[in-house]
Design brief:
By secondary structure, the chain is an alpha+beta fold. Helix content is about 45%, strand content about 25%. The strands form four sheets. Strands 3, 6, 8, 9, 10, 12, 14 and 15 form an eight-stranded antiparallel beta sheet that branches. Strands 7-13-11 form a three-stranded antiparallel beta sheet, with no helix packed on it. A two-stranded antiparallel sheet has the order 1-2.
């Protein structure tokens, strides 16, 4: 056998000749070495697999697996308990909201009745009318659980009814304010009308004259009460009226109390409906103790009869 040697960096080549005996010897050596090498490789791989199997069958390893499985089971149980607790909390919240809606309904109906409003305007026992184009629900919304939908519906129901209560309260406060500012009632305790608004015979001259208010006879010193809340704008003498008290009630209304004996208020005082303003007297042009009462709108006297309500 002729063998050519590959040159190195110097570029020179070499050759060698092997006899048949030498070639045969090399083949025998290779055949002897190859099985030994394969055996060593297989033995090493077998040892590695055996160590892995022994590790998996090791009691400590199995115990660790059992602990892992037990921990996962505990996590599942805790998750289940938390879910049940949340469901119970939601159920309790739904119950509270339902009770709150019932209380709001009862309160709303009672307030509507007290305010004398049309039940159709504030109906707390029926669902409000609704409408609008149909919109397809998203897949996420379509899968919402029923109890969540119930909770959302009750929450919006409470919000809506709370808004209604607020509006109703505002209307009632406005009515009460108007009632306080509206000069309706009776300006003295007791007494009776001796002269009405309009044409009459003058009590001093007997000539035809126009009476711009109402005369209410009463005893000297009887309290005169404000017909409505307002601000005192005048206290003093006026020709023919004698000592006079005037109150502005807003909304273009004012009241005048004349022939008084003494004033109990001063200009700028804020007064409440029914508050004592003065006492009955006979000051000015008067034939005896009485109250001359006027109602003015935009500064002009109007007939007070529609504002007078005899006290019970």
């Amino acid at each position: 056998m002729h063998i050519i040697l590959v040159p190195g960096k110097d570029g020179r080549t070499g050759n060698a000749c092997l006899t048949h005996r030498q070639v045969l010897l090399l083949g025998v050596i290779f055949l002897l070495v190859l099985p030994v090498s394969l055996g060593l490789l297989v033995s090493k791989l077998g040892s590695a697999l055996d160590r892995q199997n022994r590790a998996q069958l090791d009691p400590e390893y199995l115990a660790q697996l059992e602990r892992t499985v037990a921990g996962q089971k505990q996590q599942i149980d805790e998750t289940k308990k938390n879910a049940e607790a949340h469901l119970n909390a939601l159920a309790m919240r739904i119950g509270r909201l339902q009770a709150q809606v019932m209380r709001i309904n009862a309160l709303g109906q009672r307030l509507t009745s007290m305010a004398g409003l049309d039940k159709g305007e504030f109906n707390f026992s029926e669902e409000p009318p609704m409408g609008g184009p149909e919109q397809r629900m998203s897949r996420e919304g379509a899968g919402t659980p029923d109890f969540v939908k119930t909770l959302d519906r009750l929450s919006s129901d409470v919000d809506r009814k709370t808004l209604q209560i607020g509006l109703l309260e505002g209307m009632m406060v406005d009515r009460q304010l108007r009632a306080q500012l509206n000069p309706v009632g009776w300006p003295v305790i007791g007494g009776f009308v001796t002269s009405s608004f309009g044409a009459r015979a003058d009590p001093f001259t007997g000539r035809h004259a126009f009476h711009e208010g109402v005369d209410i006879a009463n005893k000297m010193g009887a309290p005169i009460k404000a017909m409505a809340a307002g601000v005192v704008t005048y206290v003093g003498e006026r020709p023919g009226y004698g000592l006079t008290v005037e109150v502005n009630h807003g909304n273009d209304y004012a009241t005048r109390y004349a022939h008084v004996l003494a004033s109990l208020v001063k200009v700028g005082d804020k007064i409440e409906k029914g508050q004592d303003l003065a006492t009955v007297g006979a000051s000015g042009r008067a034939t005896g103790p009485h109250l001359h009462f006027e109602v003015l709108r935009d500064g002009n006297q109007i007939n007070p009869r529609s504002f007078l309500r005899t006290s019970s």
